[in-house]
Each structure stands twice: as structure tokens, then as C-alpha cells.
Amino acid sequence: MKLRIKGNSLRLRISQSELARLVEGGSIEDTIHFAPAADAKLTYALHVASADPDISVEYLPQLVTVVLSSRAVTRWATSDDVGIYGSVETGGEPLTWSVEKDFACLDGDGPLDEDAFPNPNAGSAC
Q1: Which 3 state secondary structure label does DSSP give 90?
Q2: List of residues 6+ apart from 39 with CB closer than 8 A
Q3: Which CATH number fits domain 2-103: 3.10.50, 1.20.120, 3.30.1360, 3.40.390?
Q4: How much is the pTM?
Q5: Looking at the predicted structure, is the pLDDT value of residue 4 above 50?
């Protein structure tokens, strides 16, 4: 799973096998470590729940969880839709987030593309 944070936006991109694990098991996560200290890390996770809305975010110290409704995940996993999108008011600038299928790069095959979704623009010029 890839994490991108820019300003007040959060974007997760997941591979084919991660989407399959999410559909089967209801949760995937990854952790980035910033230093040797046990608390110098950030875990980011996707979790499937049966509740509405289609997407929400939960925050605890060192843990960000994007919660997707089972209805939205099923619809997304079985379609050509690129992602699931949402936003929430924070008392300041809204936090926007997205969870997207990770497509293979157009500029060649690489080890990071092995489990990526086929790029719908493959074969076209950049």
C-alpha cells in the first residue's frame, strides 16, 4: 500500500493482491518507522465495516485508519472504478482522502509494477 500526504489530503493506493486481501479479510495495514524509538512510527490502515458512510477516517496517535463500507469496497473491487473518495470537516480546511487502485507505470516494467493493476492508458504516448 502506498501512502501520499499532501497538505490536507490523504491518498492510499493499493495493489491487486491488497485489494483481494481487503475484500477477504476486511483489513490491511502498513507501518513507516522514522527512528529506532518504538513510538517513532506511523501505521496506516484500511478497514472494511458494514456501516455508512462509504468512507471515513479515524485517527489515533501513530495510527490513521481509513474505514470503507463493505458496500463501497464490493462495488469498487468488481468495477473499473479507479477509487473511492471523500472529505470531512476538521474545523479548518477540510481533509480530503482517496483510496485508489495502483496502476502500473507507463514508462516501463519495474518490480513495483508486478502487482499493480493494468494501466488503462498502456500503449499510449505520454
Answers
A1: coil
A2: 62
A3: 3.30.1360
A4: 0.78
A5: yes
